[in-house]
Structure formats: structure tokens, C-alpha cells
Design brief:
The chain has 169 residues and is α/β, with parallel strands linked by helices. It has one domain: Flavodoxin domain (Rossmann fold, 3-Layer(aba) Sandwich). Helix content is 43%, strand content 17%. Strands 1, 2, 3, 4, 5 and 6 form a 6-stranded parallel sheet that branches.
């Protein structure tokens, strides 16, 4: 199984990328290797040769995706939508599995954005696991080196990652 974690924003220095890297480390501790794809610095105006390499070498062979989604205006970032739109959607998404984690500095952990992305991924014929994890007040949960140390949150993430591995979603 090939796992890919997509940090769903192109914003520089984002908390989203910090959480994506922590997911990668937590999976590694479970013996699962995962690639992190950051949208930071990606040219979203066109499908560049660099993005074509990411598609071919990372996204197409991926079996299971984990999307880390920040809340942008009550939804998920347009940068992620644009990446989906410029991708070779027939090769990358159909029949694959997705796990969603929403993050926000507010109270709802991007529940609405996860629902919006679920609709788009279902349209692309992906299987979205129902255990969507909203992480609220992420700015308060991250410590000085950008890691979540809050035990209830880490337990919720652990349960989510156990499900993706054990149930072979």
C-alpha cells in the first residue's frame, strides 16, 4: 500500500503542513511509510512539468490519501480544488481511498470543508472514510516546534490511523 498525505494549502509556513508532517511521523511509528505532498510553491495556473512528475511518481501510485484541510471561508482551500482540477483525474483518483482531517483556529475543525471535499472526492469516484477528524483551535494545540502534544487529540488521531490501517480502507 502506498500512502500520501496532502497538505491542503499553498500558504507558506502553514499549520496544515506541520500537522501533515506529524501524521507522517505517527504513521512511520506504526511502520507505515507515507509521502507528504505540500502545495506550497506549486504553480496553480497551469500543469507544470514539475507537477506532472508529482502526479506520475507520487499521486498515481498512491492507494490511500490523507487530506489535511485547513478551513478557508467555511470550506477547503481553492488551491486544493485547483490541484484536483489540473490533475489527470482519470488516473489519480477513481477507486482510491481517502481519510480527511480538518483543522481550524475556530471551534468546528473545518467540518463544513470536509463535507465539501467529500462531495468532490465522491464525484471523482473515491471512497471517503466516514471517520473525519475535526481538529479545532489548532493554533493552541501546536507547541513551540509545531507538534500537537494534547493527549486527547493525539488519541483521536491514533484511532483514525488505526482505522485506515486495520480496516484496509
Amino acid at each position: 500500500m502506498k500512502y500520501t498525505i496532502i497538505s491542503g494549502t499553498n500558504r507558506s509556513g502553514s499549520n496544515t503542513l506541520k500537522v501533515a508532517k506529524q501524521y507522517q511521523e505517527l504513521l512511520k511509528n506504526k511502520g507505515v511509510e507515507a509521502t507528504v505532498v505540500s502545495l506550497e510553491g506549486v504553480d496553480l495556473n497551469q500543469k507544470t512539468p514539475d507537477w506532472a512528475v508529482v502526479e506520475r511518481e507520487v499521486l498515481v501510485p498512491t492507494d490511500k490519501f490523507i487530506f489535511i484541510l485547513p478551513e478557508y471561508n467555511g470550506s477547503f482551500p481553492g488551491a486544493l480544488k485547483t490541484v484536483i482540477d489540473i490533475s489527470d483525474h482519470r488516473k489519480i483518483w477513481p477507486g482510491k481511498k481517502a481519510l480527511l482531517t480538518g483543522i481550524s483556529t475556530g471551534r468546528a475543525g473545518n467540518l463544513r470543508g470536509m463535507d465539501h471535499l467529500t462531495g468532490a472526492l465522491n464525484y471523482l469516484q473515491m471512497y471517503v472514510h466516514p471517520n473525519k477528524l475535526p481538529i479545532s483551535s489548532v493554533d493552541k494545540l501546536l507547541n513551540g516546534i509545531g507538534e500537537i502534544t494534547d493527549q486527547p487529540t493525539l488519541s483521536a488521531i491514533d484511532q483514525q490511523l488505526i482505522i485506515i490501517d486495520l480496516l484496509q480502507i
